[in-house]
Amino acid sequence: MAEKGGPPPYYPDLSTEQTHGGPVSKPPPYSDPSGISLIVKAADFAARRHRSQKRKDHRGTPYINHPAGVAYILTSEGRVTDPVTLAAAYLHDTVEDTKTTIEEIEHEFGPEVRKIVEECTDDKKLHRDVRKALQIERAPGNCAQTKLVKLADKLYNLRDLERATPVGWDKRRVKEYFKWSKEVIAGLKGTNEELEIALDDVINRNL
Ligand SMILES: Nc1nc2c(ncn2[C@@H]2O[C@H](COP(=O)(O)OP(=O)(O)O)[C@@H](OP(=O)(O)OP(=O)(O)O)[C@H]2O)c(=O)[nH]1
Ligand SMILES: [Mn+2]
């Protein structure tokens, strides 16, 4: 039960979610100035929301490998330790690719994480060409934390393309993705030197 006057409790929909047996919004029973609990909660939330999705490679890699890898690129290569940015990295595709709403993200993770996830979310109702053009147009106006997540997202996806061609993609489509990514990245630059050098490397190898 919610405490009197407090926010209503959020219970996961057990018919559609694999559960660990507890409510999603249960706060940790201790204070956590490190922010680690926010990151762990985001990892758990993303894993459950993406649980039935696969990457487009021939092996059918679990989709969650991608957001987990984006978060790891940020810590291991970008040297990012900001919990809000790392939580958003785990969550960055939940609204675009699952039934998760942006309001739910705000309710569970707060307004700062919401802003980053929102800026990482393409409107899938728009035509693909329009979505892709909007990413190029909007990149320079994104906040610094969003730029970090987007740089790591592109780095993961470009390395993934180098590793394995998605099912149904031909060489031309792969090249187009590299060319388009280069344009998006141009608008994200001046944010993190290590990530930008790594992106230049993968792009130069493939264009
Ligand atoms: N390289 C690669 N990408 C895969 C694979 N499986 C799924 N994806 C996802 O596909 C998206 C890129 O493919 P597109 O065809 O351009 O995207 P679309 O689905 O939005 O039209 C990325 O989405 P995104 O993360 O939202 O990024 P964005 O490219 O849309 O910005 C990426 O995460 C895979 O095996 N390899
Ligand atoms: Mn992504």
UniProtKB/TrEMBL annotation:
Keywords for this protein: Hydrolase, Manganese, Metal-binding
Transmembrane region(s): none
- Any one GO molecular function term: metal ion binding
Instruction: From the UniProt entry, list the residue stretches annotated as the region Disordered.
Output: 1-35
HD domain boundaries:
63-158
Q: Which CDD domains match?
A: HDc (cd00077)
Composition skew (Pro residues), residue ranges:
1-11
State the PROSITE patterns in the record.
HD
Catalytic reaction list: guanosine 3',5'-bis(diphosphate) + H2O = GDP + diphosphate + H(+)
Q: What does this protein do?
A: ppGpp hydrolyzing enzyme involved in starvation response.
Q: What is this protein called?
A: Guanosine-3',5'-bis(diphosphate) 3'-pyrophosphohydrolase MESH1
Q: Which organism is it from?
A: Pristionchus fissidentatus
Output the lineage of the source organism.
Answer: Eukaryota, Metazoa, Ecdysozoa, Nematoda, Chromadorea
